[in-house]
Specification:
Number of domains: 1
Radius of gyration: 17 Å
Largest sheet: 2 strands, antiparallel
Distance between the termini: 39 Å
Number of strands: 4
Oligomer: single chain
Helix content: 40-55%
């Protein structure tokens, strides 16, 4: 899938060495360049970054693509509703929607931190925004 992101794409040049932050999420603060993109293009970019990634149902082990989220979120809410609390079922709402929600943003962020393959894809596509690590101690404001 080729996205038209205009000048935002700066893929690595041939021979560029993979940066440390691809394999070490603590080496840098890495985000995905989405500023100026429409919601539709953001969703398409996230789908491209998640392409080929799999997650599994915590209760039965059924495999699902990690993006888009509605297929596996709907599965959990319907196939395992009897073992979910009302709070968990309600919390799943944001993952079942077709729109880009806060729940999806948090979910994607967690997957992006945990998966080398997704950070590598962001680097290869030239959509990784890399900054210094910022650790803010608890109780200290930015």
């Amino acid at each position: 899938m080729e996205l038209n992101l205009g000048a935002r794409r700066h893929p690595p040049a041939p021979g560029d060495l993979e940066p440390e932050w691809v394999k070490n999420p603590e080496a840098a603060n890495v985000d995905v360049a989405t500023a100026g993109l429409t919601a539709e293009k953001v969703l398409a970019l996230l789908a491209e970054l998640c392409e080929g990634e799999t997650t599994y149902c915590e209760w039965c082990g059924a495999p699902f693509p990690i993006w888009p989220t509605p297929p596996w979120a709907d599965h959990i809410r319907s196939a395992h509703a009897d073992i979910l609390t009302i709070a968990i079922r309600n919390a799943m709402d944001g993952l079942c929607m077709s729109e880009f929600t806060v729940a999806k943003q948090v979910y994607f962020g967690q997957q992006f931190i945990a998966r080398i393959s997704m950070r590598r894809r962001a680097w290869q596509l030239g959509v990784a925004l890399v900054g210094p690590v910022r650790i803010v101690p608890r109780g200290v404001s930015n």
